[in-house]
Amino acid sequence: MADINFSPSQLISIENSFENSSFLDAFHDELSHRIVAQFVRHLVAHSPEKRADQTNTVDECSQVTRTIRLGLASLGAFLQANVTGPVLEGFSAVEDVFLSEFIEVRSSGESKNSVEEAPIVSFRRLCLRSLDVDGVSPYPYIPHIELFCFSRFIFTSGIILPTEVPEIWSDRSQSPSLHLSWTRLRIHLWHYKLIAQPSLSAGSLFTKAGRWTDVPTLQELIEKSLLEAEVSIARPANAVRDLKQFQWPRELRIQFRLEEAACHILLGNETKARQALQSATEDSGFSYTLSGALGKRTRFQEKNVSQLVVLAKSHDLSPTASNGQHVTDVTPVALPLNDDTLLENIEFENNHADKPTSYLPTELQDIKPDDQPQLRPEDHIILLTEATIRDTFSPADSLTSEEILPFAQRVIEDKSTNWQIYTQALLVRSRIELNRSRTVERAVLQMQALVDQIIVDTQESISSTGDSRGDQYEPRAQSNIPTIQVIPDNQPDRSTNLQKPTSFLPAPKPTESASPQERLRYVNALSSPPRWHLESELAFAWTTVGSLASALEIFKRLRLWAEVALCLASSAATDDQDGRGSGGEEKARAVVRWRLFRRTSDINDPPQLSDDNNLDDAEVDVSSLKASDFYGPERSPPPSNAPRLFCILGDIENDPQHYQRAWEISNRRFARAQRSLGELHLRKQEWKEARDAYLLAVEVNRLSPEMWSRLGDIELRLGNFPDAAEAFQRAISTANNISGGEDARTWSNLGTALLSWYRQIVSEKKHQQDKVKNDESANPDDMVSTKRAAKFGKSSHNLLQESLAAFKRGATLADSNWRIWDNVITLAASLTPNPDLDDVVLGVRNVIRIRNTEEALDLDILTLLVREATKTPVPSSSEGGADIYVPGRGTIESKIVTLFENDIVPLITTNSECWALLSRLRAWRRDWAGALDAAEKAWRTAVGGVGSSLSASSGGQGQQGNWLTDLDAWDVVVQRTSELVAAYENYGSRVDSIGTRWKGKARSAVRSIMGKAKESWEGDSRWQTLTDTMEGLKL
Fold first, then answer.
1. In terms of DSSP bridges, do strands 305-313 and 287-298 run parallel, antiparallel, or are they unpaired?
2. CA neighbours closer than 13 Å in the CB half-sphere of residue 525
């Protein structure tokens, strides 16, 4: 196939060929049967040796085209059946093709099953098993899973179509493997969505970061395919970039950028997601902004106030632009709000003529908020992607919700749009409205309507699929697919009239529903969830309004037994009289044990197929299960996601054996098992065992910042500072959020580890020097930390500098945490030979900003700053001058002066030493009046008369009595008095308001202190100091 040329135009032509035909028509030729046969043989061949024997099936250009069409048809049919609808009609004939080949392979002796079961069940079990990644299994009840596996086999196995991208640039322009990289990216992304387990959490699973840590192997495949697809689509075809000649049309390049943004959202990388969205916006020429406009939101509002609104305009909307011929007026039902206070839509003010709009882009200045132009479908997706990014990476608060809602509202209010885009907009709006009491009812009902729509549109009627093929392959595959059936109570015969499921809203007529191709056109750019994820999100929505029973029923129908256990625990805890969890945990434990173990009575009995089939019975009354009944042997084979279930059981029973079993079942690939085991050891304070568990976890999954950070905490606790520093550095490097690291805590811990490492090296050197002084032999093996630092090329000074940088980064991220800033101050002040005064000033200013109290002032640090500032002599040009010296802007002296005058002075109330330091600093600046004023305030503060006249008699009795009885306080008063006398002597004559009267003021201050302290301190050495001072002041 190396000589076959394949261009993007051919791939586009293949995709367009499905416009007026069914996806399943591609399975009706001889080539498709041959590829299906090869897929089945590949599926049942478990050993790598058998897979290596597979040979390429297609080797001609026409066969390549038909094969690609077959793979795309298989993927499209799968998404139609599980994500968008409508019902996939006529699938039984295609299923016959798969089953006939599977039965032939199984009957030939290549694969024998010891337990008899229906061929369709065995076949789909093999398909599901082939999708396991890193010990994580897909959702086990996916309809028509063979279609996805078949498409994945064609595009990613390398057996049918090539996957290796040519190294030479000249070979890339017509390379089928390069141009199919976008398709491979889509398959890998959908593979993850099938693996990801729905959970009780806000928002769609696909909009929240942090779940990739369970499948790092799949993440690497996605990142590789993304890079290859970018080379094919987003880069010019020629070597001269300035010509900008792309092989792919503009509309598809926009879609790729949107899918790239959705991919980075899944990866948790906000920066790259925004870059991709910006590229899509630029390629589209789309202009939008989140602005404000005067309007009314409530029915009783009399005055217009500012309301958030998204103003948007497409670049060149025409009847044929951006596949516009496919856009119809058919959209899902949007439920009205029907609130007695809130309006259905904001009523904006009509008079916009005299409103300034200069802050808006030129193309948006003439747009009215309530009368905006029609947008292209791609531009609708840009708005929804912007909303998703804000929802994913912004704090979960009311302000974020207010900013996100206008983006979804702009899409909903548009005159016509794509069916799937409109569905996604309604879903985004519902997620936001769940957080508001006035809109939560509409949010839940709208989400219920969307779920009903998806179920009705994707689930075949039982009679149409169960009776058409007789008993050839009974039992039917649909017996393994969770279904929802709503049958009226007055129906005469429920057992024979199970048709298509119904909903509480009228089902749309065929003319009111969009075609499969219309729904699937933008499904990848929207990152739409499969129907079981949407149903689980609905379950969470019901929990927000207190209906845990409804959530439980949804999880039971979906057979998400782990979520059933969690829901049982939550609902039972609210009813238990004996306290939280007394009955809920027991019910949850019973459900998990039922899934993992056979009944206690079956210990000596052989495995029964019927007992395994009960695992798939959604009608089992799980609330009646008892954990004591399921202590038999493990089920073999274990159920899907057995590692996760064992971890949940380990969490409930605190049994490390369950975590070890999860680790073994996953072939030592399920990192969560070792992570949970490590947490169990930590609760028992078994530090070394916890470290060993986390080392195994990060060995499997090296992309989890949470696990690296936890390992660093353990190493720090054990005193392994070099290993702790390495773990924290890896946690920072693997994190993907905008801050560049996991959080302030990780940066602060990294600084602590580096600082402790530095101190350890200093201690080792001192220990070696002591040995040399005592004529003892020095052992180089004792200098473990020093050797480790030398191995990384780090000196002790470098470690100290890196520690300071880490503390500064952590303090910047958590700028409300004064303790991290205090660490910055301490470390910057202790640097040798010269402290980092700039960082000291920065740290002191931030501590004052956060605490805003006098207690935040550290006298040792302030003394250091004054000493460092005043040791610089005043420039000679100012010598003898009367003007106050002003240090140059940007110098450290200027920063210190500004810190004292602007930040420290307003806080001083009881600390006389701070005034003394300020007096010293002002004297250095030749601010004689200011220095004398600070000295007086220092004396008043020590005596107890802050803000009063220059007399100790007005001091408060509480503070006055303190220095009359406390020796230390008395010492401070004497010191401040001596400093005041020195200030009068040195600066008094230079201050016009004092002049020659300085001696009288000094004597008055000393006399007032001696008069009050005579009874308490006469005869003390400090009393003698005051007496000598008084003698020196005599005329």
1. antiparallel
2. 28
